[in-house]
Description:
Radius of gyration: 23 Å
InterPro entries: Mos1_HTH, Transposase-MT_Hybrid, WH-like_DNA-bd_sf
Organism: Eumeta variegata (Bagworm moth)
Largest sheet: 2 strands, antiparallel
Structural class: mainly alpha
Number of domains: 2
Pfam families: HTH_48 (PF17906)
Strand content: under 5%
GO molecular function, one term: single-stranded DNA binding
Region (Disordered): 1-48
Amino acid sequence: MPKSYLDHDTGGAPARSATKMASHRIASRHETTPQSTGRGSSAAAHQILSRPTTKIQESYPFNSFFELMPEAHRLLIEAYNEVALIERTYREWFQKFKNGDFDVEGKDHSGRPKIYEDVELKELLEEDSSHTQKELALTLEVTQQAVSHRLKSLGMIHKQGNWFPYESKPRDVESRLLMNESLIAKTQKKRFLHLKVKR
């Protein structure tokens, strides 16, 4: 990763600033495409992205941006780790870029209704109460902070590697632990059989 990319002064908004930078980097890689202006520098890419909507659509193949979206997201995660936003957010921003709107500060999204998040979160914990916050966030396509907030709102606490309702009775806790031990044993057995078949 070039030093200029990692050391860029983002002014307290690393993920948002990095999105524009990733867009410019992707633009520079397409300097040989038929629709490209032939200028591969970041400054040239910035000029292209700064033009009015109609000029942008005429001068640059924005479909290429969406094709390389996973790569842009990977670059941002490498640079900012957990500070980077989820891929869905970047896709929304790229759609705005395509329409000539480069304001990534914009309006805050309320996201999906909380009731749906809570229902899905409960179902995931019922299936496997040993899920980490990061795993839950990836499955629900929300931030880890959002998962943490919802878990607290639902009165869930983390004990011995599992999530339990705050007022769980000892026998409920024991039952959940036995269930998880059983799931782990089944997983290990499957792996053992898989390795045995390979041999």
